[in-house]
Amino acid sequence: MTVKTPETTLTLTQNLEARNKEVTKAYAKIVAEARKLVAPFENQKYRTTIEIDHTKSGKDTNLISEFVCFFFNITLTKNRADYNMIYGTFDEEAIAKFGSRLYNRFLRQLFKHTMFENTKYNIEDCIRVNDPAKVQNFFVNRLLANGQSDWVAISVEEKA
């Protein structure tokens, strides 16, 4: 029989906090790599990125942060059990137009920074890769509808 004691609860909370910090660090590394992935494109539209800090939006949401560009969306969110999770979605039209090379590099970065060998805590289960979807529509809507604000930052990566 397992009995929860205050010490056990404290340990579980500390482990959750440590795991969530590790997931947040991995998210930041993935976003930094994502910026490098779009930098070689000639067209400014393909190098434009949007970062959304949902914690400053004033809305009650599980979303923490998002990185959106023409090709993909990377989301840091909290699930029902308070575990930080990273969702990655690539644009289906981008695969059709540019091929799967960028998509494969995107996936490698997601897994590289969350694999057991590269993290202090095991966070391999924090990644969710969605099926390719219509990210471009979301990107354009975010760009045009919201624009720059205290919680939405729009930038253009320097051409590499």
Overview of the structural elements:
With about 160 residues, this protein is α+β, with helices and mostly antiparallel strands. The protein has one domain (about 5-155). Helix content is about 40%, strand content about 20%. The protein has helices at about 5-40, 45, 90-100, 100-110, 135-145, and strands spanning about 50-55, 65-70, 70-80, 85-90, 125-130, 150-155. Strands 5-4-3-2-1-6 form a six-stranded mixed β-sheet, with helices on both faces. It starts with 5 loop residues before the first helix and ends with a strand.
Write the layout of secondary structure elements.
Elements: H1 6-38, H2 44-47, E1 48-53, E2 63-69, E3 72-78, E4 84-90, H3 92-98, H4 101-112, E5 127-129, H5 135-146, E6 152-156
Parallel strand pairs: 4-5
Antiparallel strand pairs: 1-2, 1-6, 2-3, 3-4
